Amino acid sequence: MEHVVIIGNGIAGVTAARHIRKESDKKITIISSESKYFFSRTALMYVYMGHMRFQDIQPYESHFWKNNRIDLIEDLVESIDYQSKTLKLKQSSGVKYDQLILAVGSKPNRFGWKGQDLKGVQGLYSKNDLELMEENTKGIKEAVIVGGGLIGVEMAEMLLSRDINVSFLIREKTFWGNALPEVDSNFVTQHLNRHHGLKLLFEEELDEIIADESGRAKEIKTKKGKTIPCQFVGLAAGVSPNVDFLKESELEVDKGVLVNPDLSTNQKDVYAIGDCAQFKTSINDRGPVEQVWYTGRMMGETVAQTITGNKMNYAPSHWFNSAKFFDVEYQTYGRVWAEPKENETSFVWKNNEREILLHFVFDKNSKVFKGINNFGLRLRHDLFEKWLNEQATIQHVLKYLKTANFDPEFFKTFEKDIVDAFNKEFNDSVELAPKKWWRKLMHDKV
Ligand SMILES: Cc1cc2nc3c(=O)[nH]c(=O)nc-3n(C[C@H](O)[C@H](O)[C@H](O)COP(=O)(O)OP(=O)(O)OC[C@H]3O[C@@H](n4cnc5c(N)ncnc54)[C@H](O)[C@@H]3O)c2cc1C
Q1: Could you give the 3-state DSSP secondary structure of residue 349?
Q2: Whose CA is nearest to atom 35 of ligand 1?
Q3: Do domains 3-107+240-307 and 121-237 have the same CATH topology?
Q4: What is the 366 CA–ligand 1 centroid distance (Å)?
Q5: CB 140: neighbour CB atoms within 10 A?
Q6: How far does residue 216's CA lie from ligand 1's centre (Å)?
Q7: Which of 54, 180, 322, 390 has CB 3.0 to 4.6 Å from 185, enough for a Cys bridge?
């Protein structure tokens, strides 16, 4: 019987295993050094905040793996011999594969800062990091977070939930400025500034972390010479593919493991998926490395098809993503670039009191809708996907916007305001679709 071995039990590896089992009788083994059972990395913060226990973020019961004949090995893969198709493990004896899937994820960036290995200094990626954070933040009062992105915000929320004051060093002029347009970024900044105990420091970078006599972080210095006392430093300056142990072999590795459109690598019967994969040629307007949850899942589904005999290329549809900035939910569908493209224009609608911002982008000439950033509402993915596929105009999107809302009663108050504001700004005459229309569309699930 053919043996498929998967290194990594994150969303990418586990999805591949589940789908290979659905389609075939192959022997499947998943190896991970992090934990025996798969858990939701995106929910780690809720364990720290006491909303869930660690076992609650494990989507499958322990018998699931036995029932589905998926063998689990908890060990570290140290190296791979691609000729003999054998893995060398740290503790167990070697494992042979017929087909190998590399799903080894990312690691937090560390830029060689002075003091980055002191006690009380850490990133947030793994189960181990969560446990360390629990230990490192016991009884402390002040923390510094380095890096203004999504993991940094999560760390800030975690620390504030335990009454730990946080200074947040953000290299850019605005918050998450490499991903968000300035108006969106300012909106998020305003929201974050409402949180007592959180101090955002823009255009500030870490220079050095200084230890007390016991070797624990006691303060940091910024590049502009500011000193900030702290007992904890959270390193949240992005992640990179976790591929160090794969380098210096015949496998082609750049930032990540280089893959073809079908996720195969330059080694026979070896594939790479999820955060660790880097496409040799980018697909559409997507980056070569995609480090988000749902893309890992899609790559897992795709590679399972190829491995079970139905060769398939990874073919993601329009970009989407979601996150939370404390209480404000964020969704993005299509592309809203930090710097608009030459042919694009924006319509931004804001309600400061309710903390809602909608940022629509569309083509200046054709008026074709290109994307939306949505803060503070919940908008339906399937509908935006349909509008992007159909190249609907901004006027069409606004006319039927109500159908995209999860909660029509709540949204009712804003919809007319949004369309009126658009008409005023663009000298247009969009009219809302009559009730029977949006009812019908919602009923038909578009
Ligand atoms: C705190 C946090 C919050 C996040 N929130 C979001 C979010 O809200 N939305 C979103 O889309 N994305 C989010 N992400 C990103 C998302 O979690 C990742 O994109 C996703 O988990 C990657 O899945 P993966 O299967 O590729 O890799 P991983 O989940 O990293 O799994 C890889 C596994 O392989 C193991 N491994 C690596 N090397 C070896 C080896 N040599 N031997 C054995 N085992 C090995 C690792 O220990 C790990 O368990 C978040 C990430 C973090 C850290």
Answers
A1: strand
A2: 8
A3: yes
A4: 40
A5: 18
A6: 28
A7: 180
Domain borders along the chain are 3-107+240-307, 121-237, 320-443
446 residues of the chain, pLDDT tens digit each: 999 999 999 999 999 999 999 999 999 999 999 999 999 999 999 999 999 999 999 999 999 999 999 999 999 999 999 999 999 999 999 999 999 999 999 999 999 999 999 999 999 999 999 999 999 999 999 999 999 889 999 999 999 999 999 999 999 988 998 899 999 999 999 999 998 999 999 999 999 999 999 999 999 999 999 999 999 999 999 999 999 999 989 999 999 999 999 999 999 999 999 999 999 999 888 899 999 999 999 999 999 999 999 999 999 999 999 999 999 999 999 999 999 999 999 999 999 888 999 999 999 999 999 999 999 998 999 999 999 999 999 999 999 998 888 765 555 578 899 999 999 999 999 999 886 665 666 555 54
- In the chain, % helix, strand, coil (3-state, to 5) comes to 30, 30, 40
- How far does residue 108's CA lie from ligand 1's centre (Å)? 10
At position 233, the amino acid (one-letter code) is V
Q: Distance between CA 135 and CA 153 in Å, rounded?
A: 20
Pocket of ligand 1 (CB under 6 A): 7-13, 31-34, 41-42, 44, 76-77, 103-106, 124-125, 151, 154, 242, 245, 274-275, 291-293, 296, 323
Domain 121-237: which CATH number of 1.10.245.10, 3.90.70.10, 3.50.50.60, 2.70.210.12:
3.50.50.60
CA of 88 to the centre of ligand 1 (A): 22
If you classify domain 320-443 with CATH, what class do you get? alpha beta
Residue with structure tokens 């970024």?
Answer: 185
Specify the residue with its C-alpha closest to ligand 1, atom 39. 104
Which superfamily does CATH assign the domain made up of 3-107+240-307 to? FAD/NAD(P)-binding domain (3.50.50.60)
Q: Which token pair is 284?
A: 């559409």
DSSP 14-63: HHHHHHHHHH---EEEEEESS-SS---GGGHHHHHTTSS-GGGG--S-TH
328-334/95-96 β-pairing: unpaired
Tell me the two tokens of residue 414. Answer: 């804003």
Question: What letter does residue 171 receive in the DSSP assignment?
Answer: S
CA 417–ligand 1 middle distance (angstroms): 41
The residue whose CA is least distant from atom 3 of ligand 1 is: 42
Q: How far is the CA of 37 from the centre of ligand 1 (A)?
A: 13
